[in-house]
Design a protein that fits this description.
4-stranded parallel β-sheet; 3-stranded antiparallel β-sheet; alpha/beta; 20 helices
């Protein structure tokens, strides 16, 4: 039998006795931190594997960490019962179905969502929830897509579905140096004229994060009601918000809320949710059906009947051995208290931001640039892009690694930082990172196998086109890649003066018939 949180922690008195002493200046700057003493003992017991492995884990924006109690509960449940496919009809199937429905009810209770108004649909993650919306939402010339500029790329990808159906995509820009979005700017984007008969009830979709995973800004939840009044449905990306903040769906009522549970309590991975209003689900038009999402399908009659309720949107067999762990994880964080977690994160984030803002290179240049608010008015766990100094500094970026020469630590030797990279590329582009033209040039060179990285200002000799397999290349850009025209050369490249400039492509420096990967190259260039 697993123990409760109070039994494992020993109560608040034991936490006060065994907690580590904190610096006096930190406690004076963050007096509320004393009230989170229970978390110190949990850190030393339930998360002691961090100390055993010598880890300093900072990637909580990427994934939370599971407590030992969660893993013990999973082991106890699997060893103590027999569970089968919930789409079958037998005692093992009934046991799985009972646990899945209990987890579904626990999700709605966690968000205080009325079951008669909201449904909890299990997906692989928040990205899978966004995909479900994108493929089924009735985009069209009269139903535009409105996005804020700091959305996760899983939400930005909705524009491809909108474009394919003739819907316009509008981005709401930032309104301040702190990367906030003004209410008037949102209202203006939602009230722009749309095609169609005047006075007709036209819908669209507003998608924005409750908390930006790039800047940490927590956007106004009041936009939900504004969008509803103007005829829009609302997708509220809560993946970065709910790990440390409470979302009450009885107060604010977005139509779609994607969530990844591993970001909240670490385990299970591969299980997410789409919490959706039942009225909004009725407007989705699924382009296909699969096992589990259909009640009956015929071959001769070319006809099918969708499954009732949430099962209509859950393709295939759900992860029935892991979904019950969602209920365990929710019970764990609720026993700790979401307000306590919020208080702890706010204190630590504010202290870290203050220290990083004060770091300086030897030449006086700031060592870290903070994108977003410099304080904890909005919680942030993932909005630091460390920048190099003009000379060799103490903190710098080297291809996504953090090099800290003072402490001598590296991410692959204990420290686990988090950098805004692939998932937040659009925000970095808007804030002075590599421009769109530079990104296109880099992507084409990856596809061609040409030299991409130039460490210390030197060119590397080009090797085989490993970029086709090892790099994440953003293929869906707004404009097509430049293509080389005309016949391909087999011999060595011509001299610099004889080359014809065609976009940003370059001839490879090897003879194509001698390379087994030429067929892969040609397929990428077509």
């Amino acid at each position: 039998m697993t123990t409760t949180l109070n039994e494992r922690s020993g109560g608040p008195g034991r936490a006060e006795a065994e907690r580590r002493p904190e610096p006096a200046d930190f406690l004076s700057a963050c007096p509320d931190y004393r009230g989170t003493a229970m978390l110190d003992l949990l850190r030393a017991t339930e998360y002691s594997y961090l100390d055993e492995g010598g880890h300093i884990y900072l990637d909580y924006a990427g994934a939370g960490l599971p407590a030992r109690a969660q893993l013990a509960a999973h082991t106890e449940r699997i060893q103590g019962g027999c569970f089968g496919n919930p789409h079958s009809e037998n005692p093992a199937s009934a046991a799985s179905t009972e646990l899945i429905e209990a987890a579904r009810a626990a999700v709605l209770a966690h968000f205080n969502a009325p079951p008669e108004e909201y449904a909890a649909i299990f997906t692989a993650n928040a990205t899978g929830a966004c995909l479900l919306i994108g493929e089924a939402y009735p985009f069209g010339p009269r139903t535009p897509l409105v996005l804020t500029a700091d959305n996760h790329n899983s939400v930005n990808g909705l524009r491809e579905f909108a474009r394919a159906r003739g819907a316009a995509t509008r981005y709401v820009p930032f309104s301040s140096p702190e990367l906030r979005v003004d209410d008037d700017t949102v209202h203006h984007a939602l009230t722009r004229p749309r095609p169609g008969r005047l006075g007709a009830r036209r819908r669209g979709l507003l998608a924005y994060p409750a908390q930006s995973n790039f800047s940490g800004v927590q956007h106004q939840l009041a936009w939900i009601e504004t969008a509803h009044d103007l005829g829009y449905d609302v997708l509220l990306d809560a993946a970065a918000y709910v790990p440390s903040s409470r979302l009450d769906l009885s107060v604010v009522k977005p139509d779609f809320v994607p969530v990844s549970w591993y970001k909240v309590f670490g385990y299970p991975t591969g299980v997410g949710c789409l919490i959706a209003r039942r009225q909004a689900l009725g407007r989705l038009e699924r382009p296909w059906f699969a096992g589990g999402s259909v009640h009956l399908a015929t071959v001769a009659g070319d006809w099918h009947a969708p499954a009732p309720g949430e099962a209509r949107f859950e393709d295939g067999t759900v992860s029935y051995l892991q979904i019950p762990d969602v209920q365990t994880g929710l019970a764990w964080v609720n026993a700790i208290g979401m307000d306590l977690i919020h208080q702890r994160v706010s204190c630590l984030a504010g202290w870290l931001l203050g220290l990083l803002a004060g770091l300086r290179h030897g030449n006086g240049a700031p060592m870290a640039r903070i994108y977003g608010p410099a304080g904890t008015r909005d919680l942030n766990q993932d909005r630091l892009l460390l920048q190099p100094g003009r000379r060799r500094g103490r903190v710098r970026i080297d291809r996504g690694r953090l090099a800290h020469s003072a402490a001598g630590t590296r991410p692959d030797r204990g420290g686990v930082p988090r950098f805004a990279r692939h998932a937040k590329r659009r925000g970095a582009t808007r804030l002075g990172g590599p421009g769109l033209k530079h990104q296109r040039r880099r992507a084409v060179r990856r596809l061609r196998g040409d030299d991409l990285h130039r460490p210390h200002g030197r060119h590397r000799r080009p090797g085989p086109p490993a970029g086709l397999l090892s790099h994440r290349v953003p293929l869906n850009l707004d404009r097509p890649y430049p293509r080389a025209k005309g016949p391909r050369s087999v011999g060595p490249p011509a001299s610099r003066g004889d080359q014809k400039k065609i976009g940003v492509t370059r001839w490879p420096r090897w003879s194509r018939p001698e390379r087994p990967t030429n067929r892969l190259l040609r397929s990428a260039q077509m």
